[in-house]
Amino acid sequence: MTPEPLDTIDMTRPEAARLVGLQLESTALSTVDRMRASLAITDRASLEQVTEDRATVYALIKRAEEFFKPLKALAHQLHANLCARETEILAPLRAVDREQADAIRMFHAAEERARRAREAELAEAQRVEDEARAAAAAAEYERSGEHATAAAVLAEAIAAPPPVVVLPDPNRDLVSFTRRWKWKYAGGPADVTKTPPEIMRRTLAIVPEEFKTLDEKKVGAFARSMKSSGRIPGIEIYPVDEPNR
Q1: pTM score, two decimals?
Q2: CA–CA distance, 81 with 6 (Å, rounded to integer)
């Protein structure tokens, strides 16, 4: 029986593959029904019959395998070619997407450093202003002879928690971030595969026994689950803010 060529199969309907080999299926099912009716072996003659039937079944099995073999090979080659073509198209897109994400992350990190520095400046200015106000109030109480009140005002100013200033992120409406936790050898590069041998040797000398073979998948899973609370001697667990698309 000649297999149907691949171009006769409707590629837009994957379920159409179930209609391939209908004649072969009919022959196989009728053979199965006929031979199941004579499965009882009671003597040598019936044994010979079942043995012969098995040869017939095996021939049909080989026939079915040979029928589908070229079709599956063509389908496999088509799949492989489609995957390769997809990779060719996606590779430059994914590369530039990664470059864009890196650029956004670097800009965001610089903006965050500047914003934190500004927040610290404003908080310090607020602290100085609050202390000056308290000192002026205490001096006024001292002049009025209310020494206990003056001392209380100063003590309250000293015990007060430092002011906290939080500035809004001006770019929050443009991009959001998802924090992902990764790891690297302490003192080594972010790309673990490029870790210098001396750093790896130093880490392996102090890393706990449970991480001794340095199962990178295990370390990665630990970093993702424990996040900032994760601690492994010789390993640095750090966050990377990935911009959402």
Answers
A1: 0.59
A2: 15
